[in-house]
From TrEMBL:
Domain named Porphobilinogen deaminase N-terminal: residues: 7-209
Annotated InterPro entries: HemC, Porphobilin_deaminase_cofac_BS, Porphobilin_deaminase_N, Porphobilinogen_deaminase_C, Porphobilinogen_deaminase_C_sf
Keywords assigned: Porphyrin biosynthesis, Transferase
Signal sequence interval, chain numbering: none
Name under which the protein is recorded: Porphobilinogen deaminase
């Protein structure tokens, strides 16, 4: 790292670049050190096929992490939901800025909501978690596996060209960051669909031996948001305890309400035929307590047969 600036690695998609610039700008303002952006091509950007079959959550993170470990870049910005729960030796998530809206969003033709979609409507998503919950809510829908960037997915919704879908489900956070809120026809509240663990949060990852006296370190400390860290610690501990990844139909939602950390989890059969929910809360939570809450809820679910239900490899 230069004394005059830090480098930040990112994937080349529009969303990744937008998120990275937002995060790096915040660190620069707080730490008083400018930055340069370095684009990194990842395995997930090259391979084709269903995302759930391409190596899971690590498919977008591995290349970025390698560049940080090698010292080629000083900072990597990840979508937290794409980051594996296992720690990587030599790296640390030094900051989690305040989370954007964690909900899923329906983008449908003609302003339709999920309830208003006609019988047999075609809905696109590449997420097994969304597939299971959509099928549980609307078994009549035709679910279509899709990949591609946000714009590509939105363009598949009729009457656009080619317009082969009636709707797609995307993370609200990405649409908001891209200024595409106007394409959202319904925010899918947690009582309908629980989001992915960490959805809407960005993870700012650096080498564990980063000098704490640098502007980068000071900036990271300043932008770290404790309520977000508490929320996602509970959510990601659920995922880690279940030993599940992005191919598992598991949704979580944690939030601080008047000092109480509330956590809700859903585990579903991939075909949506059976859904298991569990909720718990913890007052005056710290990071250790948030992790314990997530582990407790996951163990309760496992005791009730969640591993069998979601076909987890436990």
């Amino acid at each position: 790292m230069s004394a005059d600036f830090f480098t930040v690695g990112t994937r080349g998609s529009q969303l990744a670049m937008t998120q990275t610039r937002w995060a790096a700008d915040a660190v620069t303002r707080a730490g008083g050190v400018p930055h340069e952006v370095v684009t990194v091509r990842t395995e997930g950007d090259v391979l084709t096929g269903p995302l759930s079959q391409l190596g899971g959550t690590g498919v977008f993170a591995t290349a970025l992490r390698s560049r940080v470990l090698d010292g080629d870049v000083d900072l990597a910005v990840h979508s937290l939901k794409d980051l594996p729960t296992a720690d990587v030796e030599g790296l640390v998530v030094a900051a989690l800025p305040e989370r954007e809206d964690p909900r899923d969003a329906l983008c449908a033709r003609d302003g339709l909501t999920l309830e208003e979609l006609p019988e047999g409507a075609a809905v696109g998503t590449g997420s097994p978690r969304r597939v299971a919950q959509l099928r549980a809510l609307r078994p009549d829908l035709r679910i279509v596996d899709i990949r591609g960037n946000v714009g590509t997915r939105l363009n598949r919704v009729a009457p656009a060209d080619p317009g082969d879908l009636d709707a797609v489900v995307l993370a609200a956070s990405g649409l908001i960051r891209l200024g595409l809120e106007g394409r959202i026809t319904q925010y899918l509240d947690p009582h309908l669909m629980l989001p992915a663990p960490g959805q809407g949060a960005l993870a700012l990852e650096v080498r564990a031996d980063l000098d704490p006296d640098t502007g980068l370190a000071r900036g990271l400390t300043a932008v770290d948001h404790l309520p977000t860290r508490l929320d996602v610690t509970a959510e990601r501990t659920v995922l880690a305890t279940l030993e599940a990844g992005c191919a598992a139909p598991v949704g979580t939602y944690a939030r601080l309400v008047d000092g109480v950390l509330e956590l809700e989890v859903v585990v579903a059969d991939p075909d949506g035929s059976e859904v298991m929910r569990h909720a718990a809360s913890l007052p005056d939570a710290d990071l250790e307590g948030a992790a314990a809450l997530g582990a407790h809820v996951a163990q309760e679910l496992l005791g009730n047969g969640a591993g069998r239900l979601a076909r987890l490899s436990l």
